[in-house]
Each structure stands twice: as C-alpha cells, then as structure tokens.
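Lecture notes, continued. The same structure-token format from the folding unit now serves as the input rather than the output. Read the line below as a description of shape only.
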C-alpha cells in the first residue's frame, strides 16, 4: 500500500504535537472573556492526524499510534518529575522557575494522558464504525461526528483533572466550554485540509 510510506512520518508528527501541547498546556491564557490553555493552539491538530490515521490505515494502526504517543507522553512526564526532584546545582539560577512550570507538568500530563487515550480511541472507533455504517460514503459526516464526540470526552477529562480546584465555578465552565468549542471549530475550519491530506495518502 502506497500510503504506508507516510505512516512513520505521520506518527512522528503525531507524537511531537502531543508532547509540545502537554508542555504548552501549563500556561493558562486569557483573551478578552475567554480562558484557555496553551495546549489548545496545537492539540486540535492531533485529532486531525488521528482522523487521517483512522481513515487511511484503520482502527488498528490508529490505535498503535495513540498508544505510542501515550507511552512517550508518560515517559516525558516521569522524566520531568525526576529532574524536578533532583537537587539543583548551586550555579543554576532557575530551579524555582523550572519547578513552577515543569513541576506542574506531571498533573497536566496525567490529565492529558487520560483524556488523550480515551478521546483519541473514541475518535478512531467512531470514525471507523461510521465509515462501515455509511459504506465509506459521507467522509465529512464521519470526520465531524468522530471529532465532536472524541473532543467532548477529551475536554471533559483533561479540564477536570488538570485545572479543577485551581479554577472553579463560572471560570472553570468558561475554560471547559472555550476549550471544547475552540478545538472543534479549528477542526471544522481545517476540514478541507484533512480531506486533501487523506486524498494524498490514498493515491
């Protein structure tokens, strides 16, 4: 299958986007009345690539990519935690800054790992099942339905584990809804790009 030559590169980008998003998610951003974390900038792209993997390669290979990303994310979290708890060298002036940012990362990654695993597996499962149900017709429908369901599970799990208690009440609801709507909107806007990538892979 010609598309197989793209699998390794897609997997590498998939993992990289996940790792960068986890680190970026340690910062909360406030634009006007909207609150979202830095991971929201790139994380929607993991769902777009997840759609491509599921559509082109099927649930089995998409799941493989999801579990590889999960393992690398867990490894990064453990690595940052070990580095954070090790004694700071006297000449290193940024120990507290490192702890303030990456010391919080294990909670972020725990949230992201749980949300990512559940959300991506749901996304891949829904897409492949809808593909079977529609006899491989209506690509737009399976891309949108899998995104809306997968992102809902992902956002609920991530926001609750990562920031509930740190932000509460209406601020937390704002954060939750903004994240979900934003991520879904990005994927909908980039739907033509997803279409194009899938067609290139399938040629």
């Amino acid at each position: 299958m010609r598309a197989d030559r793209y699998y390794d590169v897609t997997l590498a980008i998939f993992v990289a986007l996940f790792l960068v998003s986890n680190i970026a998610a340690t910062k909360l951003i406030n634009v006007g009345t909207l609150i979202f974390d830095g991971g929201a900038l790139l994380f929607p792209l993991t769902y777009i690539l997840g759609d491509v993997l599921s559509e082109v390669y099927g649930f089995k290979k998409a799941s493989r990519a999801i579990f590889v990303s999960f393992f690398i994310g867990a490894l990064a979290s453990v690595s940052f935690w070990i580095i954070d708890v090790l004694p700071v060298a006297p000449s290193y002036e940024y120990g507290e800054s490192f702890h303030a940012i990456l010391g919080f990362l294990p909670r972020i990654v725990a949230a992201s790992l749980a949300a990512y695993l559940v959300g991506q597996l749901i996304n891949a499962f829904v897409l492949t099942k809808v593909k079977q149900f529609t006899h491989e017709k209506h690509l737009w429908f399976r891309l949108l339905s899998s995104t809306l369901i997968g992102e809902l599970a992902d956002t609920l799990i991530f926001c609750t584990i990562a920031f509930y208690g740190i932000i509460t009440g209406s601020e937390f609801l704002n954060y939750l809804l903004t994240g979900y709507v934003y991520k879904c909107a990005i994927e909908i806007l980039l739907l033509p790009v997803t279409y194009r990538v899938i067609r290139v892979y399938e040629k």
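Point for the exam: The CA atoms of residues 119 and 153 lie 5 Å apart.
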